[in-house]
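Researcher: Here's a chain I'd like modeled. Treat it as a single chain, no partners, no ligands.
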Amino acid sequence: MKLRRKWTLALLLTGALPLGALAYTTARIQKRGLETSERQLEVAVIDHVATVIQRSLDEASEATHRVGRVLTEASIGSDDARLELARETMARATPLAQVAVYDGNGKLLDAINRAGVTTTAPPEQLSNAKPAPDARGSWQLNHTTLRFLEPVFRNGELRAWVLGTLRDAALDEQIRGISRDRFDGRPDGVLLLDEGGRIFAGGDETIGPGGSLLGRDLFAQTSLPSGAFAKPFAMATEFTSASGEAMVGSARSLPEHRWALVVRRPASAVYATLAASRRLLGIAAGGFALLALGLGAYLAARTTRPIRSLVELSRAYGRRELTTRSTVSTGDELQDLGASLERMADGIAEGEREILRRATVEADLSRYLPSEVAQSIAAGEKKIQLGGERRTITVLFADVVAFTPFAEGARPERVVAFLNELFTVLTEVVFRHGGIVDKFVGDSVMAVFGAPNAQTDHAERALAAAEDMHRFVEASAPAWKETYDFDVKLAIGLSSGDAVVGNLGSESRMEYTAIGDIVNIAARLEALARPGQTLVTEATAQAAGDSWSFNTLGEQPLRGKRAPVRVAEVA
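Model: Modeled as a single isolated chain. Structure tokens:
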């Protein structure tokens, strides 16, 4: 065999095999990218459809509410005037097909229908016409008919009921329209399911309203428990439709309505660019073979050695030997490729160092701050700098009762071991309820709720954290008694109000803390509390709302305070 043929064959083998591997790897990478893009598209479509549905329901429920108020408004003396106002209100709410009014006992009085829209007649009698005084309206689904029922009160007395009926095609038209816009004119790309898995909006003649998806289509391989859509639920899968077409789809529940949204589209559409890329890669391989046949001898002699060197370089990078340098010096694209590989390896190494740095920073900050704040700082989204701002917060002090005698009689190593064990769990409790650990002072822990991110329920979070701390100590007390010969109980004080929170100190040494009178009050309440007791200020009790019970202890003198403070204990 001539040398040229040998080199041509060698070039074909050397080039075709890496090209095939590259094509395979590229196809896999592209497929993963397409899968990721498709999931993001499906999530975006689900979010958009959920927003459209909620907007339509809100518009219809608000119009139903206004119609009910108008029809029962005693100050409008004329029945004709009330009826005209009600019709005008309804006319502005395009999703509504009908509004029916019932008396206080649930008997039908009258109904207003949208002109040109056909809908089922309202029931003559409501099945349950005894709401609580604070009852609100709710949506009810009967097959494919959606109705919004709301009681109308005047001066605390039930005056009437109002029942708004959504146009049968309102949601169906919107969902089909979104499906056609997003999925190349297909009307079955988005489906809305009721709590039983039946389709009541979206689809086409093959899969449409009334049919159930349970056990087939997207849910062919998924067994859904009863009431699955009443809780947050999401899934993504590939499946085969009833017509045998390969499909890709996602589903997510709408727990507030016990419904679910399904997005589905053919796999051929999802991976269309992948097929085109494979064809292009095939063409490229063929072109390479033809080029190798024509220039085999020349290219073989010129490229064999540097290609081998580059292959070895890529293998070294595959073994994570990222400091290896290219030895190719041909002065052409192969040398540029070697330099590019070096830059790629440097970039990977730098990326790994940055990932390690962020992980280290995040791990260190997570010892003091909630994980989401630590992540923001590690990612550079927030800066650590001096300064503070006024916030309404709740401060919690928890102290180990009778710790001093234990610390005096125990070896320092045992004291430290106990405190580390206690503080580890107390810190997790604080973080679980959205607070931050401000500092540890001896055997005490100071926690802040409502900062750095504002929390309207900071008092409830702090109280819940205090209760969890007591329960943890009660459960662990027997083991600690056996290990440390120490009866462990906590005394906890809480105070709510305005304080300045932020990084205080100097540029070289600072800490995130809260400054204000409520901090001192919380510390005094913790000192005043008995073992196992949680004391709070009047402001904390009021901020907690009706979900917590308190025993008022009256005004109590606190050290450092000129005037006594009204104190209560958690019942």
